[in-house]
Write a structure and sequence with these properties.
The structure holds two protein chains of two kinds.
Chain A (H helix, E strand, L loop, with lengths): L6 E8 L4 H7 L4 E7 L6 H13 L4 E2 L2 H7 L4 E5 L2 H13 L3 E4 L7 H14 L3 E3 L6 H11 L6 E10 L19 H7 L16 H5 L1 H11 L3 E9 L4 H5 L5 E8 L4 E8 L11 E7 L2 E6 L4 E3 L12 E3 L4 H15 L7 H20 L3 E2 L14
Parallel strand pairs in A: 1-2, 1-4, 2-3, 4-5, 5-6, 7-10
Antiparallel strand pairs in A: 7-11, 8-9, 8-15, 9-10, 11-12, 13-14
Chain B lengths: L1 E6 L8 H7 L3 E4 L16 E6 L5 H9 L3 E6 L5 H14 L3 E3 L7 H10 L6 E11 L13 H14 L5 E6 L12 E8 L2 E11 L5 E8 L3 E5 L4 E4 L6 E4 L5 H15 L5 H23 L3 E2 L4
Parallel strand pairs in B: 1-2, 1-3, 3-4, 4-5, 6-9
Antiparallel strand pairs in B: 6-10, 7-8, 7-14, 8-9, 10-11, 12-13
Helix pairs in contact in B: 2-3, 3-7, 5-7
The chains are: A alpha/beta, B alpha/beta.
């Protein structure tokens, strides 16, 4: 394909928030041409797929192989429940399609290993959707690359989403059944906070950990070797009932003796006026850097403003376009994407180790990821 | 009217006359300021030791033995055993001995603590970042950790309202190669239903430091952060960020609380107990640094 050509995209199962597909479509080199899913998915999934297809005036095909084969697509965009991510991505890769996938990478180690192998053997490109091209994150990278703080020694990330997830912890009446994870996530689709949709409950480390760990990876390039983590269900009855965490803290021990920490949580809408506090603190041999990830932003306040509307609004963000641009460039040049399969697997392994540390109460070595079989061009 | 003698050093910059004017039921006598407690006026009823000075246990015992109430608000310079001995001397002489972290009385910390008690629910997370320049570092030889980090551990226990059940500590492994730069440390605490992380360094170049405190509870949160409290100065090139400080009013608040406690005959030995608990956490942190293991603590 010519380097200015348009990539035709199949959207494979867009049953949760659709920002990955929309994000790719925002770039002129990516065109959504079909939505596909397996015929046996439940009715609510078919309904959402059809709604998305209708909104974009493209067909919805209840046959993934057919969608991949018959619409001359080069790219598959995977936005299903997390437990189906790997299966769909692997099928797309084996069909020779480049893959853009929503987070998390996988819910099981074996699946994530298979995905990395499939991507490599199929020699297609893979992009895990991320936030690495937010203006503030790019600014941090620029400062570090310029040597402003010397060699990094410690990186600390605070990543709080001030969003609700159902009733507050402690509000379930005696005798009432536990909240069902799957049902709740389906109903959360209305406000896009259904990132954990699926039968398998997932805590915030698994659902959102890719974002801050993606920052860490981009800023330092260092592998996490060992972690110590603590977790709790502090805020939401849903998480407590399903024994997953809505708050976690992780001590990170990285290559080169670097240390760091991550605190991540879905802390409830009342706990921040604008959707959450996300900050990067980086210490180096020559100084330190404190970055508010939401900047630049504008304060917006007006009479009768809904309580849940953010008072500080992000502006000048170009993350979607830049991710799509990065993906196009990787395809054009046979290079690496900003967050490819191996890097995503390393993040998965870090989360896996953190969850184990929460269970054991001791630090846990991060299990190595499969080694790349060949070296592509680094972008 | 209680007369308070302040014994301090040049690390504490305060207008003691102005602070004295704010107190009810007490006044400050500055005459013994730099004496290290050797020369205390007869007329003073109580002595407050402040600052970074290395104190001799004897100075405190002398004050207690002379029938004076004592507040120890310096850097944490005594071991748990010494604190217990000194507390015993106070009891024997029928006077009060309190150990206090002055940081508690900063307006921002007081405001956050007030919100916890009533608005934030159960504390889920306390997160502190404290960065200082290499010139400021002062590792306490008997504790093995820098004084500000020990004070921050005390802050965490105060805000969380309970002791931790597990302690894990790590240090930047390559720090030997960074000499003469300071240390990069982090302390990770687990509580029943919550957690805390403290990131400390004395590795900044000479100049201002950075401090940030976030407390997230089950129903609310507070963020007391230098980042948002900066003013900008434009003098060509990139602007400078200047921290808006909290002044020294917190010293008046600390002294007033002490004065009120003495007047109402409260037993301040609980402050010694609380500090001894902090020092057990410090011990566990040191052990974790050496063993690279998480130290699980027995429930109290």
């Amino acid at each position: 394909m010519a380097r200015s050509g348009v990539f035709r995209c199949a959207v494979l199962s867009v049953v949760k928030h659709d920002y990955v597909a929309r994000g790719m479509a925002s770039h002129p080199r990516f065109e959504l041409v079909v939505v596909g899913d397996d015929p046996q998915v439940p009715d609510w999934a078919h309904e959402r797929n059809q709604q998305f297809a209708d909104a974009h005036s493209i067909p919805y095909i209840r046959d993934i192989d057919h969608a991949l084969r018959e619409f001359d697509v080069q790219v598959a965009i995977v936005s299903s429940e997390a437990e189906r991510h790997c299966d769909l991505s692997i099928r797309a890769a084996l069909a020779g399609k480049h893959v853009v996938q929503d987070k998390p990478l996988a819910t099981q180690r074996g699946e994530s290993d298979r995905l990395v192998t499939a991507i490599e053997q199929s020699r297609v490109k893979f992009l895990m959707w991320n936030r690495n091209f937010l203006p503030a994150v790019l600014h941090a990278r620029e400062q570090m690359t310029s040597g402003a703080i010397g060699r990094p020694c410690a990186v600390h990330i605070d990543f709080y989403f001030a969003k609700d997830a159902g009733p507050a912890r402690g509000t379930r009446q005696p005798g009432y059944p536990p909240l069902d994870w799957h049902s709740f996530q389906i109903s959360a689709h209305v406000d896009g906070s259904d990132g954990g949709v699926g039968h398998e409950p997932m805590g915030e480390l698994a659902i959102e950990g890719i974002y801050p760990l993606g920052y860490l990876q981009m800023l330092t390039g260092a592998r996490v070797r060992r972690v110590f983590a603590r977790s709790a269900a502090c805020f939401h009855q849903l998480y407590a009932d399903n024994r997953v965490e809505d708050l976690a803290s992780v001590t990170l021990e990285m290559e080169g003796g670097m240390i760091g920490s991550l605190v991540i949580g879905r802390i409830g809408a009342a706990s921040h006026p604008s959707g959450g506090e996300i900050k990067l603190h980086v210490l180096g041999t020559e100084g330190g850097l404190v970055v508010g990830e939401s900047r630049p932003e504008v304060g917006v306040n007006y009479r009768n403003q809904p309580a849940r509307e953010a008072r500080q609004r992000r502006v000048a963000g170009d993350n979607d376009y830049l991710l799509a641009e990065n993906f196009a460039h990787a395809i054009d040049t046979d290079g690496e994407t900003i967050l490819g399969a191996h890097a995503s697997h390393a993040i998965f392994a870090t989360v896996e180790a953190a969850l184990e540390s929460c269970r054991t109460g001791q630090p846990v070595e991060v299990r190595p990821s499969p080694r790349p079989q060949s070296t592509g061009t680094t972008l | 009217m209680l007369t308070i003698c302040v014994v301090t050093d040049n690390t504490v910059h305060a207008d003691w006359q102005a602070i004295s004017a704010r107190l009810r039921g007490a006044t400050i006598d500055e005459s013994a300021k730099a004496s290290r407690g050797d020369k205390l006026p007869e007329a003073c009823h109580s002595v407050v030791f402040l600052g970074s000075q290395a104190l001799e246990k004897m100075a405190i015992e002398r004050a207690l033995g002379a029938g004076k109430h004592v507040v120890l608000a310096t850097e944490p310079c005594f071991s748990s055993e010494v604190l217990q001995v000194v507390s015993g001397v106070a009891q024997k002489n029928g006077v009060q001995f309190a150990v206090v972290n002055p940081d508690r009385y900063l307006p921002s910390r007081q405001l956050i603590k007030q919100q916890i008690d009533g608005k934030f629910g159960d504390v889920g997370l306390v997160r502190i970042h404290r960065w200082e320049s290499v010139a400021a570092e002062a590792t306490l030889p008997h504790l093995g950790l820098p004084a500000p980090l020990v004070r921050d551990i005390e802050q965490v226990l105060w805000l969380a309202g309970k002791p931790p059940t597990v302690v894990y500590a790590r240090e930047h492994a390559a720090q030997e190669s960074l000499s003469p730069r300071g240390r990069f440390l982090q302390i990770h605490l687990g509580f029943s239903g919550g957690m805390a992380l403290i990131d400390y360094t004395a590795g900044l170049p000479a100049g201002a430091g950075y401090n940030s405190l976030s407390v997230i509870g089950s129903t609310g949160a507070a963020y007391g952060d230098d980042h948002q409290n900066m003013q900008l100065l434009y003098r060509g090139g990139a602007p400078q960020a200047l921290r808006t400080g909290e002044g020294t009013r917190h010293l008046a608040a600390m002294l007033q609380e002490f004065v009120d406690a003495v007047a109402t005959r409260q037993d301040l030995s609980a402050t010694v107990t609380a500090w001894r608990r902090v020092l057990t956490v410090v011990d566990d942190a040191r052990q974790s640094l050496v063993t690279h293991r998480a130290i699980h603590r027995e429930a109290e």
